[in-house]
Amino acid sequence: MRLTVLGSGTSVPHPRRSSSAHWLEAGGGTLLLDISAPAVHRMAEEGLDWPSLDAVWVSHFHLDHVGGLAPFLFGTKYAPQTRGRRKPLNVYGPRGTGELLKKFDEAGGYKLFEQPFPLNVREVAAGEGFEIFGGLKASAFKTPHTGESLAIRLEEAGGASLVYTSDTGFAEPLAEFARGAGLFLLECSFFRTKPVETHVVLEEAMRLARLAAPRRVMLAHLYPEWDGVDIREEAAKLWGGEVIEARDGLRLEV
Ligand SMILES: [Zn+2]
Ligand SMILES: [Zn+2]
After folding, report:
1. Which of 1, 86, 162, 166 lies in disulfide reach of 59, CB 3.0 to 4.6 Å?
2. Other C-beta atoms within 10 Å of 137: how many?
3. How close is the Cα of 121 to the center of ligand 1, in Å?
4. Whole-model pTM over 0.85
């Protein structure tokens, strides 16, 4: 698997961290993990093959994770690069993903479901196993964040694995879900002060890392309060494993 961080930040406008999106090449296809509004152009900025994108994972309906879905489909509907495309684009997400897109579509009469290629929306439930495309299996896990929010575990036929929590509060069973992953892509919204229960601070993130024992951890969804803090140094005080700070544009072999 090859991961490209498109957005390591949050909903708060930031000069170097755009909101949540990660590009993954795995099992012979490409998958976008969340699709924030900036992600639509970040894909092009990184020189990624966005016209051939196979699948999108929507973790939950906060706009810093799904705000680019309708704009992306508005783009693929008219872009010269997708005019000749015939292979389907599959959107996976929690129950309600189809309805959300439909409401947005109706609000502006965009006809987003009429694309040059088949557009499929597949809603998944927590605990469900499914196949993203050939060679990439997935399962979903309920996270304590919003009513619909889900984490995803991806297993490549070759043995590589990645768990993406997206936004989540602290919950020990999440560590079990992430057990032994090649990369545990974990949110770490805040350093020490925790304004809400539905995100994690560094101490909780590292507790999850200790319990899950992944090969490596990447910390993402970083609020501006992280600016100027050496994340790796602070993480090393709490867990002995390898911790990577997500940065926009970072590329990593999983
Ligand atoms: Zn978020
Ligand atoms: Zn959220």
Report:
1. 166
2. 17
3. 22
4. yes
